[in-house]
Design brief:
Elements lengths: L14 E5 L4 H11 L3 E6 L15 H7 L3 E4 L5 H11 L4 E4 L3 H6 L4 H5 L6 E6 L14 H7 L20 H24 L4 E5 H8 L1 H10 L17 E5 L2 E5 L4 H10 L14 H6 L1 H12 L4 H10 L4 E3 L3 H6 L1 H5 L3 E6 L3 E6 L35
Parallel strand pairs: 1-2, 1-4, 2-3, 4-5, 5-6
Antiparallel strand pairs: 7-8, 8-9, 10-11
Helix pairs in contact: 1-7, 7-8
């Protein structure tokens, strides 16, 4: 409301030590940094080497590591370890996603740091878990997609496994660890002690299989590929139009009736093999073909306007340029402005969260080099 007092970012005053790399760990820390935590990222001594996700001035790196500061520390030396421990003493949270054995070899595992700071919340992401027969394996997103079952249900039937177009296991692990860290911080208010919180790409990917995994666990039903269709709700899918495709999901009985009437096919409602939920599931291919024959006669915008007016879930299928040109996306301000010291005025992807009476904005670009140990310290000033 106009005139309401604006509030600081909700994590203002939280101090976070970031030892992450690649995508899963940085995704976790990005949530904390975006919402006000003072994050110091530890960089290796050779700043000229590109990060695993690309050049430090590149879009991917900048999107993952915005709103952080950085310090250069060689964790393989005793002096570097001592510099890290100085920061650990002042940190509320530490996040890492090294190979399981590495943190123990460097003597910076949870049990090492808890002795220095009992209030520390220590978050870890691994490929396959901190213990177990695969604990020491290297884990990356595509491996987790395959072993977690996602590739077996993605793509068209009989065309082989298919990965999804984003690093979904990495992103999910990072999102879930951020949630776990906030739980541990809440618990610390009661106990006064920190916690070790960890997840893995494999666990996170299996968790994301959700009802597909539950179908197997409870019913012993092994799901397969259904292309753009919904595994259990028919019709739902991407249908051809005169100028492209449109997503349509008239899957409830009322929506199905409305849809049939809207496309001028009331006879579909009396077909005995298309009557109930299970009937339509068995007749998926025939229903999709019939719908496609109708939708291809008009442009996508025609169908979106008519279907939306009738209360049937629908929408266009965008390229990325079309995503950010959409008026609703622009209203939601999902392209966040950033003043970059070298690239000038640019934009990155905004946080999808909204806190009323708090302005979400990108405070600074990702650091491309770290400061000297001793010169980079945590600050709890709400006005930083």
């Amino acid at each position: 409301m106009v005139g309401e007092q604006r509030l600081p970012l909700p994590l203002t005053g939280l101090t976070v030590l970031d030892l992450t790399l690649a995508r899963a760990g940085p995704t976790c820390v990005r949530h904390l940094a975006d919402w006000g935590a003072d994050v110091i990222r530890v960089l290796p001594p050779d700043a000229s080497r590109p990060d695993v996700i690309g050049q430090r001035r590149g879009s991917d790196y900048q999107n993952l590591h915005r709103n952080k500061r950085a310090v250069t520390i060689d964790l393989k030396t005793e002096a570097g370890r001592e510099a890290l421990l100085e920061l650990v003493r002042e940190a509320d949270v530490l996040v890492e996603n090294m190979r399981v054995a590495v943190k123990h070899r460097l003597r910076i595992a949870y049990e090492d740091l808890r002795a220095i700071n009992p209030r520390l919340v220590y978050g870890s992401i691994s490929g396959f878990g901190q213990t177990g027969p695969y604990a020491e394996r290297a884990g990356v997103d595509q491996i987790a997609q395959g072993m977690g079952g996602l590739m077996s249900v993605t793509g068209e039937p009989e065309q082989g496994p298919l990965r999804v177009g984003i690093a979904i296991a990495d992103l999910t692990a990072g999102n879930l660890l951020a949630l776990g860290i906030m739980m541990a911080l809440f618990e610390r208010e009661r106990t006064g002690e920190g916690r070790y919180v960890h997840t893995s790409l494999l666990e996170s990917q299996i968790f994301m299989m959700d009802f597909q995994a539950a179908r197997y666990l409870m019913d012993k039903d092994v799901p397969g590929q259904v292309g753009n269709g919904h595994p259990t709700l028919v019709p739902t899918g991407a249908y051809p139009t005169l100028d492209g495709h449109v997503n349509i999901a008239p899957s409830s009985p009322k929506q199905w009736q409305t849809f049939c009437e809207l496309v001028g096919k009331p006879e579909w409602l009396t077909r005995p093999d298309w009557q109930g939920y299970r009937d339509r599931l068995r007749s998926r291919a025939a229903i999709d073909q019939a719908i496609g024959q109708e939708t291809r006669a008009y442009p996508t915008a025609y169908w979106v306007e008519r279907l939306e007016r009738a209360g049937i879930p629908c929408g266009p299928i965008y390229r990325m340029d079309e995503v950010f040109a959409d008026p609703q996306v622009q209203h939601l301000q999902m392209a966040a402005p950033l003043a970059h010291p070298e690239r000038g005025q640019t934009q990155l992807v905004a946080s999808p969260l909204n806190f009323e009476r708090t302005d979400k904005r990108l405070r600074n670009a990702a650091a491309t080099a770290g400061g000297e140990p001793g010169n980079v310290k945590f600050r709890r000033d709400p006005q930083r």
